Amino acid sequence: MEHNPKRKRDSSSSPPPISNGTYDLSLLEAVEKSQTSIEVLDLRTLKKLVLSFERRLKDNLEARMKYPNQPDKFADSEIELHDEIEKLKILAGGPELYPDLVNLNTIPSILGLLSHDNTDIAIDVVSLLQDLTDEDVLEDNDEPAKILVETLIENNALELLVQNLSRLSDSDPDEMVAIYNTLATIENMIEVNPAVADLVCERTRLLRWLLSKIKVREFDSNKQYASEILAILLQNSAGNQRRLGQMNGVDVVLQAVAIYKSRDPRTTDEEEMVENLFDCLCCLLMPMENKERFLKAEGVELMIIIMKQKKLAYGSAIRALDFAMTKYPPACERFVDVLGLKTAFAAFMGKIPSSKKNNKESFQEELEERVISLIASLFGGILRGSRRDRLLSKFVENECEKIDRLMELYTRYSDRVKAETERLNQLVLDDLEMDEEERYNRKLESGLYTLQLIAVILGHLWSSEHPRMRARIELLLRQQKLTKKDVSDILQEYHDNIGDLDGPEEKERAQAKIQKFISAF
User: Fold this and answer.
1) How far, CA to CA in Å, does 376 sit from each of 16, 315, 366, 381, 432?
2) Are the CB atoms for 230 and 12 separated by under 8 Å?
3) Residue 464, Cβ density class (10 Å: 0-12 exposed, 13-18 middle, ≥19 buried)
4) Exposed, middle or buried: residue 225 (CB in 10 Å: 0-12, 13-18, 19+)?
5) Buried-most residue among 213, 242, 308, 330 (CB within 10 A)?
6) Residue 312 pLDDT exceeds 60
């Protein structure tokens, strides 16, 4: 994904001014004089670079200790140190040398500079780390990448990077770039070692810092990047989802998306940020305790308002509701109570607001699948009483048009799954080995999961024993040359593949429910 923060300083630009003193020396001249071009990158060159860097570091530390209150006395050593850090960037051109860099014990010296009294030296180090861990650099160098990242973690890189973030400001262009580079370095480290996503949240205050960033109303490139990093940290980590929930994260993310209930993002970058924020929200809604927080923060109501306003975040709001209502009856009940059915069924009938994004076929399809999942969740969460009656009555109104729509979707997804099954059979005939699990997963991806949810909704409708609904379903099945057994077969496959992710008892309960539908058909 492309990010466009303010242009990074490169080694040819003037180094930063010393932050705690002034002096009349042309930094540009000094740097240009001290720079030498290095032709060949090998172990000998690496050792030469490291030795030169360590010398300049030692000189700078000694000068600072000797003349703590006389910046002009250590100004030259600071310029030279800046120059040496810049020279180390050449190492990004030879990641195969990273194990040697580690063996020379240079990483602790480099990381120590993240706490340097001169913020600009810390900024140089952040830029160096971003270069060394760059995705393009590490792409085909798995082993050196792992060694580098492991050593960075062992030497508290995560803690030092996040501590340094707290002294950087968005109001300074160079510091704004350093914030971006810090987040990029952490993202690169996660790419090499996914466990970093949990480690950085366990050991540092990064989650709090990211929350403070997305709280800011004004949009900028670092707010966008903060939203993306937050989504990455939450993506596959139940621990981080819970941690953020305990930090009032659900409420903060809801406030951040609430800005877009009545207006659309102004640029594609801002649009991307809104999608990241909804990704964060959906990840947050995985643990049960966060669904409760979402409910208390009136998240259901906010999502319905966003849908009613028909802005760009329309589809994202449906997705968030789907996550909130899955296996959580209180959210389903609230949804019915605050008159969400009308909005949801308008989307189910294909009456979605028109926009450049919404008109894309892939978007329409995703939206369709989300709405089907949402309605299946409603049926699973509302089992009796007046709310259940209101839900069922939706399928009778307007001459059972919603059953017509449901059967239209059933036929379309059924045809798609049949075509995929035939393709898989052909692959097996062509001697391509494929176990049952992979075969089943391929069918799920081609639309089987959505077909199963449609069959589950049909099961709920049929089990209500409503004569008009049953007559309509039978008529439409006959018209498509299908039978109730076809629906039962889909339900049977679903029944047989229910996993025990939520424990054996929950699996048994879910299978018993599906078995009732199979028997009813």
Assistant:
1) 59, 17, 15, 9, 36
2) no
3) middle
4) buried
5) 213
6) yes
For residues 396 and 408, what is the distance between their CA atoms, to the nearest angstrom?
16
Q: Which residue has the tokens 């639309």?
A: 447
DSSP 8-state symbol, 445: I
Enumerate residues 6+ apart whose C-beta is below 8 A from 208: 247
**What pTM was computed for the model?**
0.85
How many Å apart are CA 447 and CA 259, to the nearest integer? Answer: 34
Tell me the C-alpha distance between 187 and 193, whole Å: 10
pLDDT of residue 199: 97
- The CA-atom distances, in angstroms, between 305 and each of 160, 257, 296, 410, 509 are 42, 12, 16, 30, 34
The Cα 1–Cα 228 span in angstroms is 10
pLDDT at 26 over 90: no
- The closest of 274, 276, 294 to 284, measured between CA atoms, is 294
Domain boundaries, the chain: 27-204, 401-520
Position 479, amino acid: Q
CA separation, residue 507 to residues 167, 286, 391, 503, 511 (Å) = 50, 18, 25, 6, 6
* Residue among 31, 134, 43, 40 at smallest CA distance from 85: 31
What is the C-alpha separation between 402 and 345, in angstroms, rounded? 8
- pLDDT computed for residue 39 by the predictor: 57
In whole angstroms, what is the distance from residue 106 CA to residue 120 CA?
20
**Model confidence at 305: pLDDT above 80:** yes
CATH no. for 27-204: 1.25.10.10
Rounded to the nearest integer, the mean pLDDT of the chain is 89
Q: Which two tokens stand for residue 28?
A: 């540009």
Residues in the chain: 521
For the stretch 165-199, pLDDT in tens is 999 988 899 999 999 999 999 999 999 999 999 99
Kindly calculate the radius of gyration of the chain based on its CA atoms and give it in whole angstroms: 29
282 and 320 Cβ atoms separated by less than 8 Å: yes
Mean pLDDT, residues 472-495: 93
Work out the percent of the chain whose per-residue pLDDT is above 90: 71
Instruction: Tell me what pLDDT residue 470 has.
Output: 94
- Answer yes or no: are the C-beta atoms of 313 and 274 closer than 8 Å: yes
Contact yes or no for 3/224 (Cβ under 8 A): yes
What would the 3-class secondary structure string for 206-236 be?
A: HHHHHHHHHHCCCCCHHHHHHHHHHHHHHHC
- Helices and strands, counts by H and E, the chain: 29, 0
Q: Which two tokens stand for residue 399?
A: 């001459």
DSSP element (H, E) containing 153: helix 142-154
How far is it, in rounded angstroms, from Cα 380 to Cα 460?
9
Biggest distance spanned by C-alpha atoms of the chain: 93
For 319-360, what is each residue's pLDDT tens digit?
999 999 999 999 999 999 999 999 999 999 988 776 666 667
